[in-house]
Amino acid sequence: MNWKSTIAAVSAGVAGGIIISQTLTKETLTPESALKKVKSAVKHNHELEGAWIYLQPESFVKDRLNYKVYKGGLTINEAGEVNHFDFVADATTGTILDFYKQP
């Protein structure tokens, strides 16, 4: 194998590694996208009055698993009574990991 073949093989390996690494790296949703997914999931069962979300993702542990999450809240009208709920949503998928009513 000559030096040109060696350089070509190494270059191909590095390029392939970069492509695979970028494909496997999970991207974080914008806070607005995460909030939109949460509202979409909740609106089927509740009448939404308002919503908010923190703009910076944080670390969150649930069932000994680590997540990068957004935290926020929803104001929901339940039979004429307005209640406040907090949520924790996965920053990668927007999946609701925790949802609870404020006292």
Task: Describe the protein in words.
33% of the residues lie in helices and 41% in strands. The protein contains two helices and five strands, in the order ααβββββ. Strands 1, 2, 3, 4 and 5 form a five-stranded antiparallel sheet that branches. The termini are far apart. The mean pLDDT is 86.
Keyword list:
single chain; 103 residues; 41% strand; elongated
Topology:
Blueprint: H1 3-24, H2 31-42, E1 47-53, E2 58-62, E3 65-78, E4 81-90, E5 96-101
Antiparallel strand pairs: 1-3, 2-3, 3-4, 4-5
Largest sheet: 5 strands, antiparallel
Overall SS class: alpha+beta
**First and last CA, distance:** 72 Å
Using only C-alpha atoms, the radius of gyration works out to 21 Å
In short:
With about 100 residues, the protein is an alpha+beta fold. It contains two helices and five strands; from the N terminus they run ααβββββ.
